[in-house]
Amino acid sequence: MEDKKAIAQALSDTLKLTRQYNDLLRLEYTVDGKGVDREEIVTAYFEHGHKTINVTWDSGAAMVRDIIRALQ
Question: Which residue of 29, 36, 42, 54 is 20 to 30 Å from 65, comparing CA positions?
């Protein structure tokens, strides 16, 4: 089982080192519900707002791709 919370944290640390995302405060991975009703969300917090990204049922690599795609 992949540790998606750790993946989000590591990606957050990496993105903050870039010029494009230097205003990123953090990526926060949360899970709501169980079973087929389970929803996995990554919230990107910036200095002036936030963006919510649905990563439900993503693998770790797919989650990274979805986050990057949503932030562009």
Answer: 36
